[in-house]
Amino acid sequence: METILVKHYTGNEETAFKAFQEDVPQMLFEGYSPINQQKISTPLGCGLCILIYFLFFFFLTWIKLNSGISWGFAEFILSYIFLTSLIILYNSLTKNRGGLMVTYEYRPKKKEKTCSKCAETVKLDAKLCRYCGYFFT
Q1: Are 129 and 81 found together in one domain?
Q2: What confidence score (pLDDT) does residue 104 get?
Q3: pLDDT tens digits, residue range 58-102?
Q4: How many CA atoms lie within 13 A of 99 on its CB side?
Q5: CA 67, CA 59: separation in Å to the nearest integer?
Q6: Are the C-beta atoms of residues 96 and 40 closer than 8 Å to each other?
Q7: Domain span at residue 136?
Q8: How far apart are CA 44 and CA 91, in angstroms?
């Protein structure tokens, strides 16, 4: 049995937290206690950003070649800044997508206890220590 278990709850923040709350009683019954929670956001990935930049600059080059308009360095940089601001805006609007990642630790229930008089281990339900005769209350 694993001592550390990581579960991912997907959806927006509310649905992921609701799924987590519904799952906790079953996990506690199995002996797993949540020890860490981390919100997961899924913004636009780096690879997709690079692809968008590549397509955008390819489109600018195609316009430049077909229209006869010369693009200066300033226009090129301004278009880059404009595209970057659009991607940042998209990331901020979609920040609620993602989910919740919860780390659980296995903590088995105790089946034994220690006698406070003789320090021997006895069963949890014992009323009398079999080693020294101490009565548990």
Answers
A1: no
A2: 94
A3: 777 777 777 766 666 666 777 777 777 777 777 666 655 678 899
A4: 10
A5: 12
A6: no
A7: 111-137
A8: 6
Which sign does the torsion angle of CA 93, 97, 100, 101 carry?
A: negative
Residues 17-57: tens digit of each pLDDT = 999 999 999 998 888 999 999 888 765 555 666 677 777 77
Joined together, the tokens standing for residue 33 give: 């206690």
Q: Quick one: tokens of 126? A: 């014992």
Q: What pTM does this model have?
A: 0.47
- Residue 4 has phi, psi (to 5 degrees) of -120, 130
The angle subtended at Cα 40 by Cα 38 and Cα 44, nearest 5°, is 155
In this structure, are 72 and 34 located in the same domain?
yes
Amino acid at 8: H
> Are residues 92 and 125 both part of a single domain?
no
92, 50: one domain: yes
Q: Kindly state whether residues 100 and 121 are assigned to the same domain.
A: no
